[in-house]
Amino acid sequence: MRYESTRGQTARVSAAQAIREGIAPDGGLYVPETLPRLEPAEIAAWRDVSYQERAGRVMTPFLAGFTAGEIGHCVTAAYNPEKFGQPEIAPLRPLGDGSYILELWHGPTCAFKDMALQILPHLLTLSVRKTGSTAEIVILVATSGDTGKAALEGFRDVPGTRIIVFFPNEGVSEVQKRQMVTQEGRNTWVVAVEGNFDDAQAGVKEIFTDLEIRERLKKSGFEFSSANSINWGRLLPQIVYYFSACADLLAKDVIRPGEGVNFVVPTGNFGNILAGFYAREMGLPVKRLILAANANNVLTDFVHTGVYDRRRPFHKTISPSMDILVSSNLERLLYELTGRDAARVRAWMQELKDTGRYTVDDTTRTRVQEIFWSDWAGDDAALATIRETYSRYDYVLDPHTAVARRVYDNYRRETGDATTTVVLSTASPFKFNRDVARALLGEEVARTHDEFALLDLLALHTGWPVPARLRNLAEKPVRHRRVARREEMKAVVAEILGI
Fold first, then answer.
1. In this structure, are 266 and 347 located in the same domain?
2. pLDDT digits (tens, 9 = 90+) for 430-485
3. 243 and 388: one domain?
4. Are residues 404 and 392 in the same domain?
5. Annotation says 113 is catalytic
6. How many domains does the structure of the chain reveal?
7. Catalytic residue from among 113, 149, 205, 431
8. Nearest-angstrom CA–CA distance, 219 and 211
9. Are residues 393 and 266 in the same domain?
10. Containing domain of residue 362, as a range?
11. pTM above 0.85, yes or no
12. DSSP readout, 343-376?
């Protein structure tokens, strides 16, 4: 299987080349030229196998040129009880009302990004070797909070790599910020950006496509790659947990082989839900993908109208990983739904760059609406949902998952659809403990204690243990203090690399 660019102006490349490069030279995103199809009986056979085995079976068709042994090593190195703190990698919890919570946050950074970023370093270093490159790989990351720490942890001290993470200085929680600025590793750098996530993401994209800095990199023996979900090697592992969730539902006799399932996904950059779309295209019986947004609801408006318009106020919310107005992975969906019409996709992306908006044709809009349903929930609704869910089901949601749960409630009320539904839980509630404490302990307690004291108060109140990786954050020394404006990001990268 080879890979092609969504913008159609780059020759097809191998899986290793696509993972190594991250983004195509024409600015597009790599997608597989074909998708494997899995039959219901094959998926049903996975009910009694481990997450690691499911991951290998889903990913192998996409990794032509990788041996079974190499893929097996990547999978076992990434998904093991030592890293995830328990035998189950992505456990499925019944909520008690016919819906299920898919917990994707048991990895080392307590967020769903670990599901991809624990395996990406292994895939990337293999890809570099397979393509004959001797360059040192420089990973550039823009993060709205969780990707950064997960990428730093995944690439820490990996030979032949360096990683530079940019995050919005006032756009992440205190726990998220402390996780990043205390990061250890000889090859890690963290830089706060004055602005929001879109400023950081735009700055990284500009660096990736800057021919002058790429030439300087090459002369110095470096090469850029990405750990953001623009890299297919980051998106591919996310497809796995959709299949795994359905296999677990089959194992619990909740559904029959081939029976449809809904998935509710909190998303900002569209990568998490796009993985569900690819699973559906591969044969997973996904009935509806329910897209949950916060007040930065550009994706909800797009699903409803076919108009993508980022020219709107940017809201800082209690679900900061979704505070995004430019959803990079939507480009892949448009490419697939237009019958891989690269010229059309290229025109829409140019229009977005030039004017801040674009409108898809009626056929594409209809196809989007056949697959996706979307709504959004604000901060007050998310807080109320955390409180209601704990009161009713004794289950603690983080603010992102609370947005998803509220949107699912809206979906059920509006459609009456009683299909078995899985809500993707993207972060431990302890990672966003101040707002969870506001919902469960009250405004006064949340206001008068710092986030690290609130960890223990929440644990005492709920009986849930504080994740081991968060317990000692307050005592860890700050190692990264750089702050830059968007226009300074290129110079910062050059300074760090000495080029």
1. yes
2. 999 999 999 999 999 999 999 899 999 999 999 999 998 898 888 899 999 999 99
3. yes
4. yes
5. yes
6. 2
7. 113
8. 12
9. yes
10. 84-112+233-430
11. yes
12. HHHHHHHHHHHHHSEEE--HHHHHHHHHHEEEEE
